[in-house]
Records
---
Amino acid sequence: MPVRNTDSVINEVITPIPLTTARLETAQDGVDRQIRDLVENLRPQMRHLFPDKLDALSGTSGWSPAARTALTKALRSGDPEQIYEAWLEAEPNNTTGAERIAREAELQRAFKRLEQSAEEGEATSAQIEDVRDALDKLAVSDQDTGQLTVALDELDTWIRIQEVLDDAEPDTGAAKALPKGRVKLIKNPNLAVGTAVVLSNSTVMVGNRGHGGVEITRGNAAEALGLPVINDDPLRDAEGAPQRSGTLIMNPRKHGETIRYVLNGEEYIMRAGTSQRLRTGQPWRIEYDRGANAGVADYTLTDGTYVWTPTERGWQLYKQRYDVTIDNTRNPRDFHFVVNDEPIMVRAGHARKLSNPYPIVIEYDRGNGTEMVSKSINFSGNVEVGVNAEDNLLDLFAEQGNAKRAVEPELFQ
């Protein structure tokens, strides 16, 4: 087949935004700022759980001056162990009070470390866990726990994004394609839906604006961008030029039988999965034994496609017409292709019907703009435009019973 690559038939899948040095540095600055803001917003929710020094000292009126001084110093240091020991030194039987104020101090210390690291752009998930552990030791209300859990989860997500960006290496140019298979996905609410940045062979940042907050998940990058990813075999490549006139006789591979026949007085043998092309402009008389004691068939073929078909009355040679629907309803982008040298387009979210007396050969660009592929459709039915899960490029897939395919195969149904 001739290779065509005109602008009118170029398809778009997703061209990732290049991760330039400047763009990476800007992203890192933005994430650092986001972490600092989240920590700052978290402080008022945490502060009422920290030790109340005045309240603690108000309960020590019966203590000796030395014991009160020791507790005051311990509270200033923020060291939970010192606070615990100072309290028990004055009230050996009040372990409950000592534990409560020591645990509050432990939460304050863990959060202060997180604050300092966030200011320096070095906050870690381990520090988030320290804060969680300190919270677990306190008798916090369910309402406070729920609010703090949500806030800490969001903060932890941004910290993990920070770690990914720190490991990312800028590209010298635009990435040609999305990584294959399941990868780590960072959903970024600051990026428009349908945009992507490849951070590594295993991590892609996808736009999520207007569709939720920041999130880290795993999945297929093309599917996350709203493309119909299909985990199945696409249509087979076409063999030879398309038939546009004359007569075509086909023996489908699925029947697995060899057929003998006489055409204009000459004997032929057609094996399963093969075909014969006859030029137009002259009559073609065919004779063959139907088998199954059905007798001999003898008639003249006209222009069009004929397919050998086994029936209860032996072999029949049926004339075919191909009615195909190109289903682009799940694809958010227009699909361009060529049939018989004619550029055709199916708009995003739509379908288009094609009819032909011969198998329909479709040529299309797979979305990388480098070459056209040719697929032969020798049946009537629906053919879906989708992204091949093997390489994240466009392909055509036969729908079975008009049922669309999914990205992941079902192991049990």
---
Amino acid sequence: MTARIETDPDVRASFSADASGLRYLPDGVARPESAEEVSEILRSAAASRTGVTPAGMQTSTTGASITDGGILLSMRGLKPVLDIDRDARFVRVSAGAILGEVKRAAAAEGLLLAPDPTSEEECTVGGAIACNASGARTLKYGATRDHVRAVKVVLASGEIASFRRAELEKNTAGYAIAHDPVDWFVGSEGTLGVVVEAELLLLPLPERVIGLEISFANEQNALAFVAAAREDTQVSPRCLEYFDELAVGIAHAAEARKGPPNLNVDLVPASGTMVYVEQEIPEGEVASESVLDAWLSLAFVHGAFDDEVRVFDGEQALATARRIRHSVPSVMNERGALYRVAGGRKVSTDWAVPYRRLHEAITMSRELGRRAGISQAVTYGHAGNGHPHQNYVARNAEELDAIERVVEKTLRAVVAMGGTVSAEHGIGKLKRQWLPLQMPAVALGVMRAVKHELDPLGILAPGNIF
């Protein structure tokens, strides 16, 4: 089958937006169904020097999955591949598969696919690999990179190549950067090649998982508890998620209401903050009670409200907890979309610092916001990794400019603390201005050299990262 580039205005418009708040209109849209069709598209694009931007379900918050020219390469239509090897504990899957569906297929075999981005029901495997997606359970399991065993990639030339991790304990052959080509493509945001298939490692499915929602009077107590939980030998969290007063207000309103959110009233701060934790435990009542006692003891030492601890036990209850957490970015995305016409949008950060410095970093960012006269960010997310999300809403272009100035000052301070400008969402188009805050010129030069070697014409994902 010959790959077709669709130029119908309605088709192009349907692929013009992602979760970043930006809207870029591609010149054409390609919807390949096989690696061979992807290869054909890239060979043709290379011959005509046409840019090609790969995209999955377009849940990117950085504009990585949209383009204002060239071809938008939608990977959603790749023919499904889902081959689970239960004994060897891996799954071979096409890049267009929905991550949540793959996780359920693995669970049916008693196995766990660990990466768990909040958008797992709305993102493809290829997209998760391209941005090295992580999520709440990264605290225990690491990001997507740690679970990618092999990839099949279409290079910028149209060549189809396969790369597999070496199972070596020692290797001194050449530069470390060339030891494992799989790592070139994980987190490359479509700039080095198009992943069409992957093998992902699987783990034994935990016997039982419990979640705890623990309320605190203030941010300082909550984040002190998070740091203590990282270091306490009596508990073993697989996630430590923080919600400030604004985030708790959104989550509680989302749980209580029926129907769509009222975006005019949801930003009502709650009376306190909250930490959500999960831990895997062996089956058995005694083990369960022991784990709960350890968590409650640690929480109360750090000022938790003893009458506001909520337990989530069982898959249905954990799914409810996940839905409550997801309501925060979902509401903020919708709120930001209200102001696109006026030149505003949601501005989200994903910086991270060493976890012991998280309270210091958030306090600093709030002070910068106060001095600038902007509304405070809704702050929530992966506190166990020192990694919060801060969501601002700019109502117009003037507020957008003011918020971006605050974000830049925050990132400069974060980097000075030994942090990163992007912990999980990548750079895309929105954050490339801030990458040099963290990376020295020589490191950026090495990245450009890799990009030139794999994509000498610069046709892959133009505008992402560089």
---
Amino acid sequence: MRFGLFFQVPDVPGRSHAERYTETFELIELAESLGFDVAWLAELHFGGAFSLMSNPLMAVPVIAQRTRRIRIGTAVTLLPLHHPLSCAEQAATADVLSGGRLEFGVGRGSIPTQFHGFRLPLAENRARFDEALEIIRLAWTRDRFSYDGTFFQIDDLEVVPRPLQVPHPPIRVGVHSPESFAHIADLGLPIYSGTTTTPLPELRRCMGIYRERLAAAGHPWQDDQMALMFPVHVADTSRAAQDAMRPGVRQYYQNVETIFSRLPDSYGEHLPRLEAVRKTLADLPYERFCRDQAIFGDAGEVVDRLQAARDELGLSQVICWFDQGTRLPRAEVERTMRRFAEDVMPKL
């Protein structure tokens, strides 16, 4: 079992954007000292309420300079929003400058604000993702290559630098819908998911689809096939853990509402999701969230729930979001990270 941490890095009143980046880097340094394996950085655009981390690949070499061992992943690089040649160059550069520690997490994205900002049709996200991923893999494994697609045409190019890892950094695809689980299973690629977007009851159904389609396509289940992100908090009692995280969970949904509400109504596609978020805020189903989407409890409860998820879902990596909503004091974030490393990790 490998252990990761997830960082979304939203804006926080009273702290500069530079301070928020520095805090994140310091927590990753602490995570390395505690034995965590991977730090995962979100890529999100056009809304500090949700995230300041618009280009995580640029942060990879900085983190590598401050650490010695921990791997650094993107969760996820939004391929439809990038030109694949530029993305291949940037990711390869990040891998070289980090000493071969990049974990290349990729996804198609579904947040309307990001596609609206870049003036790209959200409906094209899967097709653009497929072309971009194919081009990036060709760029990393061929001396020269050409490509003739719907969105991109490439004529006999060499892409440099080459990644330090051979044949390339590990690729993991973020998936959150049944269609995505099925599609990525057909490709045989390892996956990353999160309970904030795919609650456990839905995730169980999606994993059944993934396993079935993976086997049907002739792809064996690998040791590193499935990574899953949970909001996590460890306290002396289950009630204390849930009480500590309630403000952060509410803040998370408020941040989502802030981002979605800034889209013009004429855009249209986001309105059902915006309405759902507003209903959640009006009557936060916190007990259900704690049951189906988070792991907040004492050390024994956290161990038991993670062991159950590991065995049922075939997890190779647990990724912890220790401060969802960014409402915990810094000392409390560090305390729960230490508690998790000391009391939970050895038992998984």
---
Amino acid sequence: MKGVTLVADWAPKPDFVLGPKDMQGKQTYLGSRVWKNPRIEIREYDVPEPDDEEVLIEVKACGICGSDVHMAQADEEGYILYPGLTGFPAIMGHELSGVVVKAGKRSRNKRTNRPFESGEEVTVEEMLWCGQCKPCADGYPNQCEQLNEIGFNVPGGYTKYIVVPSRVVWSLASLRKTYSGRDLFLAGSLVEPTSVAYNAVIECGGGIRPGDHVVICGGGPIGLAAIAVLKRQGAARVILSETVPERTEMGKKMGADFVINPLKEDFTEKVLELTDGMGGTLFLEATGLPTVVYPAIEQVIWRGKTIECTVVIVARADAKIPVTGEVLQVKKSRIVGAQGHSGYGTFPRVIECMASGMDMTPLITKKIRLEEVPENIIQLRTNRTDCKITYVAD
């Protein structure tokens, strides 16, 4: 079978120190400080076999994520832009859905508490948490100390078949109420990115009360998914800050009440105007440009009437943020980080939201074949008119 594979050179920067979870020449938690000269190849692989606690899935759809783009994109020195866990070569792709082909005798379908049966439609968590380290035992699987990530350091979904532990596989049976055929798998491929947004604004950010105002900075798939989640939670005014017209229109489809173009309008003044001077209860930084975005958010917090604001940082960026502690102290506000999507019942809750009317499929603006994945990953470095480009199996 063919697999879209990312290859790069192990070339640590002079200040890089091998960490306890890094593997010399193979894997690091600081990708942008180690991997150089990324390139995408389509390689041939054998069909994998599941062990007793694993599931073999035939991939039906897999979306391209911004992380895929940044892993394959180099800076002026040749280093990849993605700062996190990476181990190459690896088949890329982690926003996937498909059909169970074969399951180990000790695999468990959380819907039935029995082994998975062939033919069941499923989606998969991208983060392969161990369940045994202290963060996992404490209920923080996204911070697992033995973490593997599908498409980052273990084989991903830009291929025909993938084997994963049954503990991270979720049935899409609920979606049959709303979707059928290919549409079910397209919706299923959006569970993972929507769960990232859910984890950021609900679990890490603490959610909101109905009637609160929220501000989403960045109209990529995560920011757009957060709009849908927060509007469903009861946000009174959802404000999207975005510069690309196609993405602002998509934001409106997802439920944004107002859109700001920060290149043409004063972000701080406009947020205060749209909220009658209140500002926002929750801000999501989903641009990957925190040094640009955060100072304006901070001014809204300082000048607004809302106390106990939360700024959630979900976009990955190797950058230091200029923070004024006095603002956070006086306004009793906070900055929190959000990584991943696992735990807290996030996947099943997102699936149920989608099954009961939260339609995320408009995010998919282009469908492609497996052979077209490399060129579209490269295209997304500069093209922001498409929202979600998704590989759909024949």
